[in-house]
């Protein structure tokens, strides 16, 4: 295994590896307000048969947040099989990392509807029984508005009552939460009994909650055995070869819009911020393949009066070289060739170091140039004050502030898994990834057909998503690198460093709408404090904010 693999963080894997961005038509400035509009066709560069469908955009005004919704077709049910954390989808597959080598299976007739709340459906009698258990767990009153089970269990009989309901009646999501609380309370036997009971209710080819449950169950087992770091390292050691990994990342890139949202919104915001400057310098703190800047080069080439001189600094700690098959010089050559093709004067500077090691001198900022800084799903990997007194997260933000940039674009997952207690962190991760797994189980773009038992889909979920979940659930201290924070927390950090918010314009909204037009109508856009939020139904998933 190459040395670079030892520190690879899969949370940024799609950004690092995807190398074929969709083209984005240029958008004109029309102000910073938001309004509803119909989307036009969105040109695609991938060689997949496209069926152009008209998509109407509606809005729902709720609590001063405006939603942009798109039409979709219903989800399709597929048969379910087995196999957690393994590439195989045979009915007797086992997890090579599970402490217990019991085989995985699931029930095939659950008829889950994505329009309902997350979790497995049950009869009225069983639902009532679950409510009674929840009332016993929470007591007559609850201080938690989200309705989740968040209080500690003070009586092991409450777990036993869940088990007495029968395996077939266990709700996957609530049982996972109960296991997390049992682990938090040190009730090892009860946690183990619930995990054993849940084993046959989850499958990597089942409903969204069953697929998620298969991976979360692995994380919980590792957490209980205090082997989270070992399991996480093993998962990274079993990483597929670069060609396979590139394929898996491309699959996930195509079937969910979260990275397309990030690339599109950041590019348009940067283009607008430097539209009158003759010398432009972009610092990308996770350059990966450099694909994001191919479209920016094309847009700058169309500028009235001629393109500016463009300089790109790519920060990369070497992890991406595994997929690239080489160093950052390959990225520079690729971008230089594309810039030459479009007549844009270009220069590339490689900063082959991790974000926590970056200093002012590594970035080579020159006077007289318009500076744009991009943080694409990477700042949450920087250790903060809860991990180290050095606090590289805030240090890096202050360093960028000292450069006096024209614009800073921040793309992050809207989740809070940084400093919460284990059970709280688990519930937050479970809620977030339930929405993610559900979102990729509905309408897929470009007429892509990828049933739940598709081996590439399973591998994409396993290699691109599951490892992040295991890291959040099972790892602690410096080994836990997936430390997400919500927009309000990022806002506090940036304002404390002296930044002010730069509201995203209407053209950013229309650009993202073009990306979303082929996806499910359950994806929604809304504005929050000048930032753009992409959500699944009412659950915020990712945000794009701009600062200066």
Notes on the protein architecture:
- By secondary structure, this protein is α/β, with parallel strands linked by helices.
- Among the domains are: 156-238 and 417-483, no CATH class; 256-414 and 484-547, Rossmann fold.
- Helix content is 38%, strand content 12%.
- The strands form two sheets. An eight-stranded mixed β-sheet has the order 5-4-3-6-7-10-9-8.
- Strand 9 and strand 10 (539-547) form a beta hairpin.
- The longest helix has 20 residues, at 455-474.
- The chain is globular.
- Mean pLDDT is 76; it is low at 1-14, 16-123 and 138-153.
Keywords:
single chain; 548 residues; alpha/beta; Rossmann fold; 17 helices; globular; disordered N terminus
Quick recap:
With 548 residues, this protein is of the alpha/beta class. Among the domains are: 156-238 and 417-483, no CATH class; 256-414 and 484-547, Vaccinia Virus protein VP39 (Rossmann fold), CATH 3.40.50.150.
């Amino acid at each position: 295994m190459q040395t670079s693999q030892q520190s690879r963080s899969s949370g940024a894997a799609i950004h690092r590896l995807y190398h074929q961005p969709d083209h984005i038509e240029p958008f004109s400035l029309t102000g910073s307000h938001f309004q509803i509009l119909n989307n036009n066709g969105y040109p695609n560069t991938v060689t997949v048969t496209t069926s152009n469908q008209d998509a109407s955009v509606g809005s729902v005004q709720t609590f001063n947040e405006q939603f942009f919704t798109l039409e979709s077709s219903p989800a399709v049910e597929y048969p379910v099989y087995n196999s957690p954390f393994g590439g195989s989808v045979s009915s007797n597959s086992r997890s090579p990392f599970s402490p217990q080598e019991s085989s995985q299976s699931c029930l095939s007739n659950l008829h889950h509807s994505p329009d309902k709340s997350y979790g497995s459906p049950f009869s009225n009698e069983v639902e009532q029984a679950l409510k009674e258990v929840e009332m016993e767990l929470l007591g007559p009153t609850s201080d938690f508005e989200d309705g989740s089970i968040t209080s500690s269990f003070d009586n092991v009989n409450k777990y036993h009552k869940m088990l007495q309901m029968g395996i077939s009646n266990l709700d996957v999501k609530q049982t996972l939460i109960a296991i997390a609380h049992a682990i938090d309370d040190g009730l090892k036997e009860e946690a183990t009994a619930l995990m054993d009971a849940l084993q046959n209710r989850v499958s990597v080819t089942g409903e969204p909650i069953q697929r998620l449950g298969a991976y979360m169950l692995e994380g919980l087992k590792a957490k209980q055995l205090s082997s989270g770091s070992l399991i996480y390292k093993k998962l990274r050691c079993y990483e597929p070869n670069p060609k396979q990994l590139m394929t898996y990342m491309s699959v996930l890139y195509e079937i969910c819009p979260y990275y397309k949202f990030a690339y599109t919104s950041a590019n348009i915001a940067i283009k607008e911020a430097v539209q009158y400057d003759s010398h432009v310098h972009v610092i990308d703190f996770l350059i990966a393949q450099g694909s994001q800047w191919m479209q920016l080069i094309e847009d700058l080439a169309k500028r009235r009066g001629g393109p500016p001189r463009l300089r790109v600094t790519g920060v990369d700690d070497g992890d991406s070289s595994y997929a690239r098959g080489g160093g950052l010089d390959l990225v520079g050559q690729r971008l230089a060739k594309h810039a030459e093709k479009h007549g844009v004067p270009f220069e590339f500077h490689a900063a082959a170091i991790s974000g926590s090691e970056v200093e002012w001198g590594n970035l080579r900022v020159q006077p007289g140039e318009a500076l744009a800084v991009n943080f694409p799903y990477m700042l949450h990997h920087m250790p903060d004050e809860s991990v180290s007194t050095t606090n590289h997260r805030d240090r890096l933000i202050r360093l960028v502030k000292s450069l006096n940039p024209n614009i800073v674009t921040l793309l992050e997952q809207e989740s809070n898994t940084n400093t919460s207690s284990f059970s709280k962190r688990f519930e937050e991760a479970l809620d977030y990834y339930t929405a993610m797994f559900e979102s990729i189980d509905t309408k897929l773009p470009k007429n892509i057909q990828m049933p739940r038992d598709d081996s590439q889909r399973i591998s994409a979920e396993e290699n691109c998503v599951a490892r992040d979940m295991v890291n959040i659930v099972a790892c602690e201290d410096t080994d836990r690198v997936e430390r997400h924070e919500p927009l309000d927390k990022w806002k506090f950090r940036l304002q404390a460093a002296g930044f002010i918010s730069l509201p995203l314009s209407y053209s950013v909204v229309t650009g993202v709408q073009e990306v979303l037009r082929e996806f499910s109508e359950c994806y929604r856009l809304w504005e929050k404090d000048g930032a753009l939020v992409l959500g699944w139904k009412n659950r915020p998933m990712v945000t794009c904010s701009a600062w200066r």
